[in-house]
Design a protein that fits this description.
The complex is a heterodimer of chains A (99) and B (504). With 99 residues, chain A is mainly alpha-helical. In chain A, 39% of the residues lie in helices and 6% in strands. The two termini of chain A are 34 Å apart. The mean pLDDT of chain A is 86. Chain B contains 18 helices and 15 strands. In chain B, helix 5 links the parallel strand 12 and strand 13. The chains are: A mainly alpha (99), B alpha+beta (504). At the A-B interface, strand 1, helix 3 and strand 2 of A face strand 2, helix 3, strand 8, strand 9 and strand 15 of B.
């Protein structure tokens, strides 16, 4: 049985800042439930012999030396900004706080 | 909560046991950021003043950009983990912490979650009277700092009233290590003191390692203090609050004390504590509620697919372990002996958080006693008056220079205090201040002798007494001479001259 409930979908929507109607919540509860159930099937075949992994290839490292490189100019940095004050990005005041 | 509503601290401790926990963020002073080769504003040598000039596409999370781990940041993190007595994970992983707030453009912060680089440590912290407390460390993990928001418009200037916000991403991606303690029990009435000592110890460690500028007033070192209370005899922990924005050692101590008193007052009236973050206000000395604390689930952590696991070799860990500086407590014992300080003198330095400054000043050539005297005296006094950290006001090299000027006789203590004041006011080096303000003592005997003779002539009764062998009477003449010289004379030399001239 799926762990996905309408309450959970509504909560996730809030976290993702997506406004959902009740109909959409109901529809997504079913769809997300089906996805979670499918993924859960993997659990059935998981064995203790195989370690959980987040990456298909067992690589580690891939680090870079601590040497400064090229930075963007202010113009480049702000080029894609919907709004700015010439040096900083301007965003809607958002109710919330730094994490 | 108004001051009057707080419960008396001793009373609070009678009824409740405080349990502490700390999350300390340390900005590493690498040359570049954690995942990008943008210059790191937390590196001491970089002067970055203009917004959005120390950024690359990675800092902005632009499409197609990929993070690459800074090797030096990893080394620094391992060193810090080792210094905290932690085990270093053979492989550790980065994770995405998802949240929507414009301080990071990606909508997630790259952090570490269930596989931190360092875990299970123990840090020895020394309290003011020399008591040693073992603070259990849960973990130390690597992550990136967020950008800086400035809220504009609105009546209060606070976010609730703001019309829009301006974002500077220079700080986004600065390498951080977050050090998380386990719950700390048994601090009792010394909980506020332990809080300060703990953060101070971390500061000493990261400075000794040379991995952070560790300037609290600049946000290089930030402390979130968790406080909960449980009624005496109760096993279950109470609900905790997390006080953020505590950016000086003194504030850490005050914030913990305040939260104990505030929570005790609420609990004693039968109320409940809301689990939330709270903000510390330096000006009012109080905390105010912030957002309700999110559950870890709400961040939807998952392994960062763009980065490989970090797997330091045993050789690297061994190499970094060998290179560790002395543990702070051992180092303190050694320095106390080397400097020949009394218990009281040494504690005075440590408790003022000035050990590093005094050490550096001694290294710059000053005598330990002189270094101690200036840092814990005049400089601490000015810092206190300005509500600043002494280290932020003047450099050890400058203090050593002033001490040298005093010892060579170019300055007396009174003039030296003016030089300290001038340096702190930003008038340049001690030499600059001496010449700009004309503060050098008058070492020209001719001028001094003229002043001495004039003073003796004005006080013939004193002259008689001195001639009769009542040497202590000379004080009045010395005072008159010092006044005549505008304080710019070496009092010891004036005394010699007074006695010499009186005898003629």
């Amino acid at each position: 049985m799926s762990e996905i409930t309408p309450e959970r979908v509504a909560h996730l929507a809030m976290l993702a800042r997506i406004a959902l109607t009740d109909d959409e919540i109901e529809k997504l509860t079913g769809e997300l439930g089906a996805i979670v159930d499918s993924v859960a099937k993997v659990q059935e075949v998981a064995t203790p012999e195989v370690a959980a992994t987040s990456h298909p290839i067992p690589l580690t490292g891939g680090m870079r030396p601590d040497v400064p490189g090229q930075t963007l100019t202010t113009e480049q940095a702000l080029a894609g900004a919907p709004d700015h004050d010439g040096s900083r990005f301007r965003v809607t005041a958002i109710l919330g706080e730094e994490q | 909560m108004a001051k009057a509503e707080l419960m008396d601290f001793d009373k609070a401790l009678e009824l409740f046991e405080p349990v502490l926990g700390f999350e300390v963020h340390v900005e590493l002073s690498t040359q570049t950021k954690m995942f990008s080769d943008a210059p790191n504003p937390a590196f001491g040598g970089h002067e970055i003043t203009e917004p959005n000039t120390a950024i690359t596409p990675v800092c902005l999370g632009l499409p197609g950009s990929l993070p690459v781990v800074n090797e030096t940041a990893v080394r620094y993190s391992i060193s810090l983990g080792l210094a905290l007595g932690c085990q270093i994970a053979p492989t550790s992983r980065f994770a995405r912490k998802n949240y929507f707030y414009p301080d990071l453009a990606k909508n997630y912060q790259i952090s570490q979650y269930d596989e931190p680089i360092a875990f299970e440590g123990m840090l020895e912290v020394e309290l003011e009277d020399g008591t040693l407390v073992q603070v259990p460390i849960e973990r130390a993990h690597m992550e990136e700092d967020a950008g800086k928001l400035t809220h504009v418009g609105g009546s209060t200037g606070r976010i609730q009233g703001a019309e829009y916000s301006l974002v500077d991403y220079n700080r986004a991606g600065v390498p951080l290590v977050e050090i998380v303690t386990k719950p700390i029990y048994g601090a009792e009435h010394r909980a506020p003191e332990l809080a300060k000592a703990y953060v101070s110890t971390i500061r000493d460690i990261v400075r000794a390692l040379g991995i952070s500028e560790a300037r609290m007033e600049r946000g290089n070192l930030r402390c979130d203090a968790n406080v909960s209370l449980r009624p005496r005899g109760q096993a279950a922990l109470g609900t905790r609050t997390e006080t953020k924005n505590v950016n000086s050692l003194r504030s850490v101590e005050r914030a913990v004390r305040y939260e104990i008193q505030r929570q005790a007052a609420i609990l004693a009236k039968g109320g409940t504590i809301t689990q939330e973050t709270r903000h510390w206000h330096e000006d009012t000395g109080a905390t105010s509620p912030g957002r309700p604390k999110s559950d870890a689930d709400d961040y939807r952590y998952f392994p960062e697919p763009d980065l490989l696991p970090v797997a330091p070799t045993p050789q690297l860990i061994a190499e970094l372990r060998v290179a560790l500086p002395e543990a702070p407590a051992a180092r303190r014992r050694r320095l106390k002996e080397e400097w020949g300080f009394s218990d009281l003198e040494f504690r005075d330095v440590v408790n003022s958080g000035l050990l590093v400054e005094v050490t550096d000043t001694v290294a710059a050539g000053a005598s330990p006693q002189q270094a101690r005297k200036w840092w814990t005296g005049e400089i601490a006094r000015i810092a206190n008056a300005q509500n600043a950290e002494p280290a932020a006001l003047i450099s050890p090299a400058h203090v050593a220079e002033i001490v040298a000027l005093v010892e060579s006789g170019s300055l007396n203590d009174r003039l030296a205090r003016q030089v300290v004041e001038g340096v702190i006011a930003g008038e340049g080096s001690p030499a600059d201040v001496v010449s700009a303000r004309g503060l050098e003592v008058v070492s020209d005997d001719g001028a001094l002798i003229a002043a001495v003779d004039a003073a003796l002539a004005q006080q013939p009764d004193v002259l008689e007494k001195i001639r009769d062998g009542k040497v202590q009477a000379a004080g009045a003449v010395i005072g008159a001479v010092m006044k005549a010289m505008g304080g710019k004379a070496d009092a010891a030399r004036v005394r010699e001259l007074v006695l010499e001239r009186a005898a003629q």
